[in-house]
């Protein structure tokens, strides 16, 4: 019945116009409104301007106008009313017979007007409204000057004559009113579905423009079947290698010289080529640099050769291709888009294919996608009905048409396309028809498919991208200190250059025999270059390569740790990156998923709630009370039967029958398998699936349900539905999903089990069980026919297919009838409580980010000892931004009064409240609240919210964070955290593939962090500090020697000994430290997690420690230079008549430096192995062997003439041997004294435990003393804070 809106004094009033002819069109409605409002006139003029446009443009403009008006109208309403528009449960009228507008007015004003038949016309391609009257045109709502939300409540429509009588009659005959209203709702829904379908058609005919964006053929791929392609597509050859023969040198050099250190040393090597500038020769830097680059190049070549071999093996695999009506065997690399190929059982698909037909009925096939997502469960794919009959070569060659699909992308689980056979209707193509490269054909003899994406355009190759680059905290700090050293180097160069200039000017005339009056000697620029080359080795040239090799070997240690090997799944730990090894020793926050990470993700059906009663499974179906109620024809037997039918029908599980008659279920998720198993335990056995129907054995009775549509689960929908035709011929919608989405779609008339089911859901959740709600709806044939056409239009849309399909699903999933709920148990993994307790004791904060219900998450928190019984729980469940702000600020103020940084409180927050808490104006306060709490649990959160929480903590605290998860929904937070850990579990390898490290069980995280993390941090820290120490110790001596050489830049050491210092003579001790150093055994580290705190607090490597080591090196260099200088102050003459010169002094000093730095390595070593001994003593011995050999090279080889006979001079001097003992001991005496004082007076917990291990005593007594001291200190702090709080309260009073 047509209606109009009239404007009275700037207010919109919805009135009913019974006498207006039904043919009243949209323009008449506008004219009526335009008399009262200029704004309506403007809209009318805009409408008139469209009259001259072509019909398609006019339709688009009208639709855009309607969208704008609807958007304004809905956003003007309060949230409660806006939510009413989102659900069709308000579309069916109540027992009072009131229509939608009465309910709207009642929501606004708290009253029901007496008007009985009104409606509001809204139309949107993106809404899920289904209440458009079939007899009324769309009437736009034009925004007036005042708000609708503020006026509707005050508007009282005039009562029609006889309205009271009609209301009374409706109360008397409520049943007739309900039936009448239901029929009217049906009529309106079918009209809306037709209009919706028309909009989808218009969208595909006229895709929208976005700025300069216009839909063209370039935005979709067109594949001609059995014909030449309109575009040349890439071939199917793949290459995962980084280099080839031509690109290796430029690419490798580009990668290497992206590092600042390599650029620095290349600059030094180039400067040394300038004549009369380099004091160390032309090749002393170039040769070590080339050696280091060669080591890296050999490593890259070895790895890349392996990639080339793997690529060649794949590219040379054989496949059958249809060519000119015959099958030809070709290589994979020869395939291209449009080829029709045959794939046989247990064979990988060579490219992304569209399934045409198979050896199975209806074009079905089974595939395994373990290479794509790690899931070993078989998945079903089904060809189109129109191509399923193409079973021989002749039929395939006669296939004519084209496929239109989206351009290549990396979305593994999404595909949009259309098959257009000539002379036949369009057929939608979705992910169910796609066979992706990397998957394997299983349980199917053969399939025919057409290639749509090939080579590097396949989804597998599109997803083979590297993880985001992460740098460790130690690396960042090291780079900062290198910059500081570089600034010191520049300062030393300028100072030395100026000193040289002044000294030369002073002595150029008096000391004329030196020949220092030339331009070069007096040039400050030349002198700066000379000293820049002389001092460049303050920055160790070999540090980067040493770090890379050590980290690589540390990663191998992780991979081969038998204690982190999971025998059940045959899954070892895997370090997918090695540059974050030391970061594992700095973890402050852990963000963990729950399902599959803390729990096993092996689901077991435990309980269900049906018709206000809870049922449990028994050993046999006959023993269960549920089955007995069915057999006794209990009053709830109908609901029970529908409940079990839903469990056994509404899923995508694939049954596999074994020879012994047993059935194995292959499911995409453990939840689905558990639900089908639950139905089997009650005697409803699902055993047959085809693309067209499913069959179940219901307590001995065979039932076949024709599958009409499957509305799949998505993370946004949070539900899965199936539309079936029952054996009785009725159409039913079965749906299961989260209670939050099921309850809002229940029919208003369905009030039977709502409250009792909610109570049962809370009871299940409190037991730590996972819950789902089940509901059903009867669908009229007429509504289904209209909807299926609308759904088909959405399924073949190339533009916005996902949103249109979701929109279409929302249209049918309404007016549901609640059947009950299920409860599934997901037990904790082995060792989870012990692991969490150990990590908490180590001072690590643990946050749980899960999509489960709040009660379930809290219960799991207690079970895994994340929440203790003496811990207060702070729950934030707010429905608006203002309420969230008030709650957060209130709690922040409460914690501020206690002045404590670590409250014994667990914060629990749901996803909706978290959305408000992460807004810009509240983010800081929420962050402050979270950081005070000991434990944080976020429930019902989406993957993007997980990533936002991790990013918030990482950015605000600057602490090292770790995220751990097992599913694809955890990838975002894994990549956001400083360190990402993936668990290779039941949900596949998506998380593991995106992680930095992967483990098989959560309990292995304890060893990975507390043992490998702490060890690697200590090893890398000592390696870096020692590398800088030994370089400063030697090369600063050149500065001291400049005091005696007139700042001339003369070197004290032989030039090649300078270049080989880092590469040969002191190369092994850093490796020994980086690989074998450990301050406590693994067993002790695991038993006493407090030992993790020194590494967590970065006590071993920070700015202060770094510069203490630099100062220590400077002090040693003073002893190592002036003590030998004083010892050789008296001239000595050898038997060959030679006297000692500067080079003799330099070699003596060089010997003492090597001995001292090697002994220093031993002094800082906590764990001695035979490899450590070999590295330290072997380095000293290597120098003496070098002296002996190098002294006899000249004149056999034309270099090292100044080193000839050096061994006899050096080794025959008693003073040299005496100083060899005294100088290193004197240099290290201060270090030994400081170490003794530290280990005696300032002994740390780690030192005490290590001493106990050395003495073979039990460290438990030491740990107990430490714990007692910590508890005493904590109690003193808490008492002080409580006293201050009480004092402040009294002051306020």
TrEMBL record:
Enzyme Commission code(s) on record: 7.6.2.1
Catalyzed reactions per annotation: ATP + H2O + phospholipidSide 1 = ADP + phosphate + phospholipidSide 2; a 1,2-diacyl-sn-glycero-3-phospho-L-serine(out) + ATP + H2O = a 1,2-diacyl-sn-glycero-3-phospho-L-serine(in) + ADP + phosphate + H(+)
Biased composition (Polar residues): 37-56
Start and end residues of each P-type ATPase C-terminal domain: 992-1243
Record domain P-type ATPase N-terminal: where: 230-286
Membrane topology of this protein: Multi-pass membrane protein
Domain of life: Eukaryota
Protein name as it appears in the record: Phospholipid-transporting ATPase
One CC-aspect GO term: trans-Golgi network
UniProt xrefs under NCBIfam families: ATPase-Plipid (TIGR01652), ATPase_P-type (TIGR01494)
Location of the region described as Disordered in the Swiss-Prot/TrEMBL record: 37-75, 134-180
Gene Ontology MF annotations: ATP binding; ATP hydrolysis activity; ATPase-coupled intramembrane lipid transporter activity; magnesium ion binding
Positions annotated to bind Mg(2+): 593, 595, 966, 970
Segments crossing the lipid bilayer: 482-503, 512-535, 1059-1080, 1101-1122, 1142-1163, 1175-1194, 1214-1234
Biased composition (Low complexity): 134-147
Matches recorded under Pfam families: Cation_ATPase, PhoLip_ATPase_C, PhoLip_ATPase_N
Keywords annotated in UniProt: ATP-binding, Cell membrane, Golgi apparatus, Magnesium, Membrane, Metal-binding, Nucleotide-binding, Phosphoprotein, Translocase, Transmembrane, Transmembrane helix
GO biological process assignments: phospholipid translocation
Catalytic residues of the enzyme: 593
PANTHER family for the chain: PHOSPHOLIPID-TRANSPORTING ATPASE, PROBABLE PHOSPHOLIPID-TRANSPORTING ATPASE
Biased composition (Basic residues): 57-66
Locations listed in the record: Cell membrane; Golgi apparatus; Membrane
Family per similarity comment: Belongs to the cation transport ATPase (P-type) (TC 3.A.3) family. Type IV subfamily.
Amino-acid positions noted as binding ATP in the UniProt annotation, renumbered to this chain: 593-595, 672, 713, 736, 770, 850-852, 940, 946, 969-970
